[in-house]
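Regression report. Comparing outputs from two consecutive submissions.

Submission 1:
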Amino acid sequence: MITTKDLQHLFALIAADIAAHRDHLCELDGAIGDGDHGLAMDAGCEASVKAVAALDPAQATPAAAFNTAAKAFLNAVGASSGPLYATAFMRAGAAVKDRPDLSDEEFLRAFAAMAAGIQERGKAEPGEKTMVDAWKPAADAALDAWASGASLLECFDLAERAARQGCEATRDMTAAKGRASRLGERVIGHIDPGAASAAIIIASIAKFVEQHDSCRIDM
């Protein structure tokens, strides 16, 4: 089972990995945007991990952890990624309701709810050079693998691969959303920074699942 304490660790992993890639994300954004995506994501993830870490894991449910992360991220980030990730975390919280801890399937459903929330809030479809190009293929890959009997670890391995492939595919796309959409074909050849940060977050979640699985085996 995945507990609130486990989720505190997950948010710490995400924050650390985004921080490590902050400057690269800013470079990607500088090519087709205003150059601050790495700073925004770093600020949002740092605020989220601090807020979630302040919860008492013996009292707070996983839903409370996701909702706390949502509020903190939104308060820290005024850019478009703020409402998108706030919605993602709120949808994850709604997906697990008042469960005291999460089964593998419930955690996977929370992940899928994050992806759906981002797509719906952003009103984006795959192929429009946004973070949806990483999130939707990742969620679809994980859900399909689960339906075929794969383990949670296998599901997130496939999700991470799909996210990286989706991110890389944005290099050959024009943009239909945001500031980059004004640049027309000049954005071709550049990876979407939102897709890049999404791929990092999904890789962090996959790493968390791997570590959690190893701990379960050791026990």
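Submission 2:
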Amino acid sequence: MQLTGKVAVVTGAGRGLGQAYARALAAAGAAVVVNDLDLDLAEETVAAIRAAGGTAVAEGSAVGSTEAAEAIVATAVEQFGRLDVMVTNAGVLRDRSLLKMEDPDFDLVVETHLRGTFTCGRAAARQFKEQGGGGRLILIGSPAGQRASFGQTGYTASKAGIVGLTRTWAAELQRSGTTVNAVIPVALTRMVATIPALAELVEKAERGEPIPADVRAGGLGTSDDVAPLVVFLASDEAAGITGQAIGAGGDRIAIWSHPTEVVAEVREGGWSADALAEAFPTTFAPHLQDFQQLSQDSGK
């Protein structure tokens, strides 16, 4: 698959999943702006891309503010003349359960993940419009935003919000030819190394050792296993795909469903509390959703 002539931005691309996305986009022929708060890491990623024959520049803004988003997009335009793909990957973790969560930690996570996705997505969409339409917004979600993830109050709120943005922006930007999709990655990165069951596998992945076949079949692999989905969604071949949340991990690709009603009942004159108490055990209770599906393999 070729992305020759396209220009892409990947935020938070100094290491892990973001780095894998940036390298894969460059390998497919795109010129890439490698953003990371740690400019040294961004420069290392750029050096690796150039050593492999690709084209890239580093950018060191801290994702979140409007000014940072506009600076990142401006770098793409100044260096390469345009922008075709925005991958909003940057994020941080401050894991705490509700009763232990402090305001600054919550605010930092939401500022980086959710507000950063909003500001970078808006800046990119404005540039797409100025260029005459088209473009690809690839927003990075997480299984933690799709189901319960104990101890990740700010992270789950942000990642669920990002998938909500995906659906809304897909509707708003469809006429212009811009596609908007969320990638739900599952990968053995440093961010999941704190999960006891995955720590050993993360160490194997960092050493370059093969991941067991049963683990890969279950949807858990390396960052490089997720990157091809990003390349595909950035391509002309994906022009008809928008508004989707697509999971990727190991040997597995999955489409996540959109929320929908599972049962609905109409009662003439409305529902009183007593009527609800009478109807709930038989009419509604059998359809209550399982909220305890913990995201133990979250790709973050």
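Expected: both submissions complete independently.
Actual: both completed, but the second showed a warning that disappeared on reload.
Relevant detail on submission 2: The longest strand covers residues 179-185.
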